[in-house]
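Q: I'm a student working through a structural biology exercise. My instructor gave each of us a protein and asked us to get a predicted structure, then write a short paragraph describing it. Mine is FkbM family methyltransferase. I'm not confident about reading structure output yet, so if you can add a plain explanation after the C-alpha cells, that would really help. Here is the sequence I was given:
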Amino acid sequence: MRGELAVLRATLEAVRAEVGRRDIATLEELLRTGNRREIEAQIRDRTQTVSLPDGSVLCRVLGRFKMFTDAADAGIAPHLLLDGYWQYWVTEFLCRNVARGETAYDVGAIYGYWSLLLADLVGPEGHVTALEANPWLHWLLRRNVMLNGLGGIISTERVAAAETTHESLRVPALLTGPADGHFASAFTHEAGRHYCGAPAKALEDLAQGTVDVVRMGVSSQAKLVVDGMGGLIDRSPRLRILLDFDASRCDDAPAMLAALSDRFPLRFVDGDARAKPCTIEDLLERRRVTTLYLSRMEPR
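A: Happy to help. First, here is the predicted structure for FkbM family methyltransferase. I'll explain a few features afterward.
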C-alpha cells in the first residue's frame, strides 16, 4: 500500500511539474487512466472551497465544475467540499453508460452534481431536465447550471415527481437555507421535520418522446415516482434508470420492487462500478441501501 501511494504521489508531482494545476478538460481525460485511486487523487487535488455570506459554500467538483452547496449540509456537501466527488462508483458507472446526444432526467437534483455530470456526457446534442422541489436547493441548482455555462443543455424545474399531477404536494425538506434567507417562509416545521409545498408531475407527463436515462435520488418518494413512470417506460426502449433505494425510507418497498421486477432485471451498482444481479429478498433483508440499475439494456 505505501509503495503504491508513493508511486501515485510521484506521478501527480510529475503531472504538476509538466502542466501545473489545471481543470480537467473532459471526463474522458478524467477516466483515461482507468485507475480509480489515481482518478480520485487527481479530483481531490483540484478541490477548492470559498464560504459565502448567503449560507452557501462554493467548491470545485470532478476537477472542473464550480458548485454552490449549503453550508449546513452534513450529507453530500462534505464529500463535495473535501473530495470533489460523490459516490464515485456510481459516477464511473454513469460515465460508461451514458452517450452523446441522449436525453436524461435528474429527479431530486439537489445541487445538480448528477445534472452537471450528465450534461457533460450527453453534450450539446443531448438534453438534461433537472427536477428539484425544494426552493432553496432549486435556487442553488439554477446558479450551478448558469455558473458552468450549461443552460443550453440543462433545464431546471421546481417540481416534485409523483404518481400524477398535483397543484401542490407537501414534500420533506432536509435543507432550508439560512433562517433569515429569502426562502425561509417557504418551509413549515412540524413534529421535528421541515416541509415545503411544490407542484408535482408524473414523469410520464413531463414531456413527450423517449428518455434514455433517469437518475432518481428521492428514496422516500421512490414508489410515487415509479408509479408515475409507466407510460415513460413503455415508450422508451433504451431507458436506463438509476434509483437510490433505501428499504427503510421507501413507502411499500416490496410492492415497488415487485412492480419493477416485472419490467426489468433487478441489478445494483456495486462498489467496483459494475451492475450485478440481485433479488427482492436481498434488497429487503441484506442490501437495504443501494443504487439500483433498471434497464432492458445490458450495462457496460
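A: Here are two points you could use in your paragraph. The two ends are 29 Å apart (CA to CA). DSSP finds twelve helices and 15 strands in the chain. It's a good idea to check both against the output above yourself.
Q: Great, thank you!
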